[in-house]
Design a protein that fits this description.
Structural class: alpha/beta
Order of helices and strands: EHHHHHEHEHEHEHEH
Distance between the termini: 4 Å
Helix content: 40-55%
Largest sheet: 6 strands, parallel
Strand content: 5-15%
Length: about 210
């Protein structure tokens, strides 16, 4: 392995949550008088922390979202997770191999700690992501595309940024990894490679990842 730490994005990379959460977000924003399609939501918010939703709506309309927006949105998302969420195909097998090879890894997500934990418990990924391997945009002042979250994860894991590799599926996440001085590989199961930006390589099957990082 060329790297001393593998940093995974969560939504869309480890858990197949992006279709669920973006469908819910688009519907909720539309209910509130901000017409948003599923495609709009993917384009504008995929990979971002929820504060980006507030920021863009205010910037575009001059109106603030309701004070209980975050709580209501997360309640809807968690209910959908409980019914439907699954791990991205091939992730458990890939993590087993990482563990067997003794490669350090962690998750650094724009989602809240609660969102990460709810998703991991539902999909069984919590066995691989124990305390100390989970980092959230809640832990830093700025979410992706700022580099803060990835730099924080690397610092906490005791690895220099230049020895880290990030696995991402969103343009915002790729920008954050690059700004942190890290290599980044793009998972293209949902996002076309051309949209991701300056990645070191792309893959669409988790079974391919470790070969790319070797």
């Amino acid at each position: 392995m060329r790297y001393e730490l593998v940093i995974f994005d969560n939504d869309g990379v480890l858990v197949d949550s992006e279709p669920l959460s973006n469908t819910i977000l688009a519907g909720y924003l539309t209910e509130l008088g901000h017409p948003t399609s599923y495609e709009d939501s993917l384009r504008d918010y995929m990979g971002a922390a929820v504060h980006r939703v507030h920021d863009l709506v205010l910037e575009r309309t001059g109106r603030r979202l309701p004070e209980d927006f975050d709580d209501e949105f997360h309640a809807r998302v968690f209910a959908a997770f409980a019914r439907e969420l699954e791990a991205v195909p091939g992730v458990p097998e890939m993590l087993e191999k990482l563990v067997a090879e003794g490669v350090p890894y962690c998750v650094a997500s724009s989602g809240s700690h609660e969102r990460i934990r709810v998703g991991h418990r539902k999909t069984g990924l919590d066995r691989w992501f124990t305390e100390g391997k989970v980092f959230s945009a809640q832990d830093v002042g700025r979410g992706k595309p700022a580099p803060d979250l990835f730099l924080y994860a690397a610092e906490r894991m005791g690895v220099a940024p230049g020895r880290c590799v990030v696995v991402e599926d969103s343009p915002l996440g790729v920008r954050a990894a690059r700004a942190a001085g890290m290599d980044v590989y793009g998972f293209t199961a949902m996002t076309p490679a051309a949209r991701l930006g300056a990645v070191n390589g792309c893959f669409d099957d988790m079974g391919q990842l470790l070969g790319l990082l070797a």
